[in-house]
Amino acid sequence: MSTASHDWRRSSKGLCERVVVMGLETAFPQAATSVALIGVQGFGRSYLRILHELENTGQIRFVAGSDLMPEASGELPGHASFHSDHREMLAEREPDVTIVATPPHTHFQIARDAIEAGSDVLLEKPPVVSIGQHLDLMELCRRRGRICQVGFQGLASAAIQRLLEVAAADRLGEITDISVTARWIRLDRYYERSAWAGRRERDGVVVADGVATNPLAHPVMNALRIAQAEDPHAQPVQLDVEAYRCRDIATDDTASIRLHMSNGKHVHVAVTLCAETLADPRVIVRGTTTDAVLADTATSVYVGGIREHVPAERGQPLHNLLSHRRDPARVTLLAPLGQTLAFTAFLEGMMNSGPPHRLAPEFLDERDEEGSRRVILRGIDAVIAEAGRRPALFSEVGTPWAVPPVSVPLATS
Ligand SMILES: NC(=O)c1ccc[n+]([C@@H]2O[C@H](COP(=O)([O-])OP(=O)(O)OC[C@H]3O[C@@H](n4cnc5c(N)ncnc54)[C@H](O)[C@@H]3O)[C@@H](O)[C@H]2O)c1
């Protein structure tokens, strides 16, 4: 680790901590929440930017970072210590809040370590890779009196909050079903960036990097949250899964899924990373009175085709966690671990549905783009549109390459 010496002094801002690192000196209000980041590179970099802003406005002290890669130390501000061992970091710096932005299969143990060390946690999505882990972590939080918020930005967006208000005010009537559609484009480079990318398992450990369980996890989580609008305890009880892969990866990159919820509602998912043209996720909520759509990466919401007035901003689970810690009576935690149990049940069901079906080359196009290879599933844009409209599975809309679904019963306890 890099070392920092500390002393305390009064300043015009009140009691401050003075941190001296290699001749650099900076001061923070002592009361500010101390935050540490585990997993500095990759998606962790987006947290570095947010932490910089929060620190500049005196809301936090960014005390430490941890990453297996020693070069990650160079990405931290000079006053934050670097540790290649997250347990050492937790013991030495005792952060109030720890952000876990490491690969999914590492989340459970690292989050446990942070909670055991007395820290609240912001855990990136997908939070964990089994129901057993999920329930274990929830129980640990309860026993240790700690909070675990999940990095599902959509849940913390003003748009979904408005949609839930609209549903509660009975403006949609009874919600009958919900469709998730998304057409993303990922180049081979995306799968080459990390050893776990495109894997279902690694060294016997579940990774679950499928299209709907990781890259497009957000709209699935949003749909599950909406499906629970009238009954927060509703859980998925069965999945009908069509999982496809267009590349030589172990997991799916294209999927069509029907989730049966315990409250009788259905969520249909029709998504790909091999699109002809890009379309951001849409969650279409069908009610007996009218429909609503959560669009533009959960930054806008339409009810009966008319846009509701909400701030068009991405949700910020970290900001929500910090605000909740400051004022728990007035600020509701918007993406707590307990509320994401349905997503973990979905993820576990996807793993239990078996490996994806490899699509034959005759259905695929390939081309070079930006120095990498792009694979396109011919006709997928129209198939997703139709599956979302009906709603139905790919095999139910006359898709030439589709195979019958695998049905998987789910248990959430
Ligand atoms: N919320 C979002 O929109 C969003 C977007 C992208 C990724 N993510 C999530 O962020 C997480 C990280 O994804 P990524 O693509 O950045 O992964 P990555 O593999 O590219 O990077 C993760 C970083 O964690 C480090 N790391 C791994 N194990 C570690 C350990 N035990 N201790 C300390 N550091 C460790 C790696 O060295 C690397 O720097 C995943 O859970 C992913 O799903 C979320």
Automatic annotation (TrEMBL):
Q: Which domain of life is it from?
A: Bacteria
PANTHER family referenced in this protein's UniProt entry, alphabetically: BCDNA.GH03377
**One MF annotation (Gene Ontology) recorded for this entry:** nucleotide binding
UniProtKB keywords: Oxidoreductase
Read off the lineage from the record.
Answer: Bacteria, Bacillati, Actinomycetota, Actinomycetes, Jiangellales
Q: What positions does the domain Gfo/Idh/MocA-like oxidoreductase N-terminal occupy?
A: 34-152
Q: What is this protein called?
A: Gfo/Idh/MocA family oxidoreductase
List each copy of the GFO/IDH/MocA-like oxidoreductase domain by range. Answer: 161-289
